[in-house]
Input
Amino acid sequence: MVAQFLPIAAIILIFYFLVIAPANRQRKKTEAMLQALKKGDRVLTSGGLYGQVQSVENDVVWVKIADNVKVKLAKSAVTALVDGTPTGE
Output
């Protein structure tokens, strides 16, 4: 009877190491990046906008996307920190 469950257990174990564990690592990495956001960081938003962080509040980030243009974003809308200056600025 145990031999019948071994293939199922093996599939679950493989699924964990190929899907669940990497997703958890990525989620933790993203959460750490969002917690470490500070004024002056260059970011990319989920909408594809590049900008510079002007201020950080609890769940809100003010991002400067052009001269005299600041937008209020949810922290979760920030997807990555960007090095350098994007094309067009």
